[in-house]
Design a protein that fits this description.
The protein is mostly helical and 700 residues long. The chain contains 29 helices and 5 strands. The strands form 2 sheets. The chain has a 3-stranded antiparallel sheet with strand order 1-2-3, with no helix packed on it. β1 and β2 form a beta hairpin. The chain is elongated, with a radius of gyration of 41 Å.
Length: 700
């Protein structure tokens, strides 16, 4: 049993830690009137709990109109133990699970192909593998969604600074962080710009309890809606400084255009002030940016190479210095405008004091350092040291999972990254994010692919994929995609895949076909045969005999087909007028002649035809019935059936008489010889004699 907190030294399998977190409270909306008699809790599929709430029986009978049928004896409700990202609904999780399967399967196929080509140069293979992982990461990132404007924003408000859009998810924010630092080689040359884009999309997620630049701008926007002279409000300049500190140039220029000096009725009186505002706006909009995509629609002077960027940066900094020393500042009579614009210039010049005061979170301060002070920082070690200094300047009380993940990436600790992915973002993130982690870190590649004795001889990568596959297989809506992940586990995946396939329901035709396709893809021939046999016997026992024979034929199960043939033979061997024969005769007609290629079914077809023609001979309805019966006897050795006599005594005597008539007919001058083998009549006569003896013994 697990040890108790007061007894940490006990020999417990799973000892409790003496340090406790705050308990997590999950509301249970059962709707049952108190008092409750009992509450039962049981695990359901995935992270669901089944909570059964039973009512206390009332000592007095209640009126009929006061009895709620829904809670007559109690209720059973589901409680989801939410772990990690709560902004993603269950339907979205299933959509992500299904959508990520093609990208994952394609990457695994390419990995197997590259392993088969291991004779090539390792550098060529590694470069090609990087491209494959990057394509895989882009596909997953697109699957996780793009931020869209809110549906109620039909017309864009010109005074709207922060456009309302769908709430971003921490899952995609974490995925993009791993792509930036592990996969995208080009991002290493323009890392500051990538982090600017990332912070612009996900700054609201860096903390839920403290102020961020995004929340500051949202609050400022609400306040400015009721302010006529925005330049008199300190929050206007504070918000603009914060946006400039993290490189949100579009917002800064838009806020500068809100300045009162742009009003037509004030241009003559505030000409110098408006000129300073416009000069700062031009400098902001022409800030050099080292990024390869000038068509992104963002403001700035784009440079694709480092020499071009350095040249443009020095020229731009010269314009900043000239404006800072300009004499026009003395002529600016509006104090708030003069001080606010000068603070913007100091931020662009890299003044550490103003940059620190303009940012709220250490992540924002890190982006500011990379933009204005350390543009060419290379290597995660230097970036981690800078991030450590930023955390000291902007301490945070609580690190959420997203920031803990970033710290693990900067510290080059795959253990921390994997732990945060598992704890905060769930098994899906671990199973798919490992490919990014191992592609960008040799240490992570060795750590996660090393086979461990403590894990039963499997690697950490395979362990997490097995866990994710088990979660998928526990839900009926996702169990059909679990084989893709089990097949990627070389040690234990195939064995668990066999168990999963055997547990699939076999009463549905489509499910059987899917299972067979999975067996074909992964060359599981033995499992395929067993699935076919099981499906055949299930359908046969439940009255779907046609389906049963069909699946058994595909399985080439001669033993069971022979048993079925014997059972059918017992029914067909009865009187031709028997209703049961009509039923089995219809079954044989439904199956067609192709069924006669396995077991004893070929014999049954021929025997059925023989008895049909024999009946016609007895009724005198067909002139060539005797000939067809003879042909049937010759084609199949019906009379040599070893199990029991096929014909009764009367039927055998009838055939012997017909053979005698046929032999005597040869002496007639008008006899026409049939196309029969020379020894046909003697062989049939001998077989009939043998059958007659066995029939007499059986009827006695």
């Amino acid at each position: 049993m697990p040890g108790r907190p007061s007894d940490p030294g006990s020999e417990a399998v799973v000892p409790f830690s003496p340090e406790f977190r705050d308990p997590v409270v999950y509301p249970v909306h059962h709707g049952v009137r108190p008092p409750l008699l009992r509450v039962y809790v049981a695990w359901s599929r995935g992270s669901l709990l089944h909570v059964a709430c039973l009512r206390q029986p009332s000592p007095e009978p209640e009126p009929e109109d006061s009895v709620d049928e829904g809670e007559a004896g109690g209720k059973v409700v589901e409680v989801r133990l939410r772990a990690g990202e709560e902004g993603i609904s269950e339907a979205q999780r299933r959509r992500i699970a299904y959508g990520s399967v093609p990208a994952f399967a394609l990457l695994q196929s390419r990995k197997n192909s590259l392993m088969a080509m291991s004779r090539m140069s390792s550098s060529l293979l590694r470069g090609e593998w990087w491209q494959y992982v990057l394509e895989y990461s882009k596909n997953i990132s697109e699957l996780l969604g793009t931020r869209r404007l809110s549906s109620n924003m039909v017309i864009e408000d010109p005074r709207m600074v922060v456009q309302p859009s769908e709430e971003p998810t921490s899952l995609k924010a974490a995925w993009e962080l791993m792509e930036i630092f592990y996969v995208d080689k080009q991002s290493l040359t323009w890392l500051p710009e990538r982090l600017v884009d990332w912070s612009e999309d996900y700054d609201s997620l860096v903390t839920r309890t403290e102020l961020t630049i995004h929340s500051k701008l949202v609050n400022m926007q609400k306040k400015l809606a009721n302010v006529k002279v925005v330049e008199d409000d300190p929050d206007y300049w504070e918000g603009m400084s914060s946006a400039l500190a993290v490189g949100w140039l579009d917002i800064v220029v838009k806020l500068l255009r809100f300045h009162g000096s742009y009003q037509l009725d004030q241009l003559d009186n505030r000409e110098t002030e408006n000129g300073l505002v416009e000069a700062v706006a031009v400098l902001v909009s022409t800030m050099p940016r080292l990024r390869p995509d000038p068509s992104s629609g963002k403001l700035g002077q784009f440079c694709k190479t480092r020499p071009d960027f350095i040249k443009a940066w020095e020229k731009w900094r010269g314009h900043l210095s000239k404006l800072e020393c300009s004499a026009f500042w003395v002529q600016c009579s509006h104090d708030q405008t003069r001080e606010g614009l000068q603070k913007l210039l100091k931020i662009m010049l890299g003044d550490i004091t103003n940059i620190t005061s303009a940012t709220c979170h250490w992540m924002e301060l890190l982006v500011s350092h990379l933009l204005y002070i350390r543009q060419f920082m290379a290597g995660l070690e230097g970036l981690n040291n800078l991030a450590h200094k930023c955390r000291q300047l902007k301490p945070t009380v609580h690190y959420n999972g997203l920031m803990s993940l970033l710290i693990g990436i900067l510290e080059e600790s795959p253990e921390v990254v994997l732990a945060e992915c598992s704890k905060t973002f769930g098994p899906w993130m671990v199973a798919h994010g490992i490919e990014l982690l191992t592609a960008g870190s040799d240490h992570a590649d060795v750590l996660l692919h090393e086979e461990r004795y403590s894990l039963g001889g499997i690697s950490i990568e395979e362990l997490h994929r097995l866990v994710y596959a088990q979660i998928l297989s526990s839900h009926p809506l996702t169990c059909q995609i679990a084989p893709t992940y089990l097949a990627s586990c070389p040690k234990q995946g195939i064995g668990l895949l066999e168990i999963l396939l055997y547990k699939q329901p076999i009463q549905h035709h489509q499910v059987i076909l899917k299972n067979l396709e999975i067996c074909r893809l992964y060359e599981l021939d033995n499992i395929s045969v067993n699935v076919l046999k099981t499906a055949g016997m299930y359908n046969w026992k439940h009255g779907r005999r046609g389906f049963g024979i069909y699946w058994l034929q595909l399985a080439r199960d001669e033993v069971r087909l022979n048993r079925i043939a014997q059972q059918l033979f017992k029914c067909i061997g009865k009187s031709l007028s028997d209703d049961s024969f009509k039923q089995w005769e219809g079954l044989l007609e439904l199956l067609g002649t192709q069924v006669g290629s396995s077991g004893g079914l070929e014999f049954l077809h021929k025997y059925r035809d023989f008895k049909r023609t024999l009946k016609q001979v007895e009724d005198g309805r067909a002139s060539n019935a005797a000939r067809q019966a003879a042909e049937s006897l010759i084609q199949v050795k019906l009379l040599n059936w070893k199990a029991h006599p096929l014909l009764s005594v009367s039927e055998t005597n009838l055939l012997l008489n017909k053979l005698q008539d046929l032999s005597m007919g040869k002496l007639r001058p008008d006899f026409v010889d049939a196309d029969l083998p020379p020894s046909a009549l003697s062989s049939i006569r001998l077989a009939l004699a043998t059958n007659l003896g066995r029939a007499i013994l059986e009827e006695c």
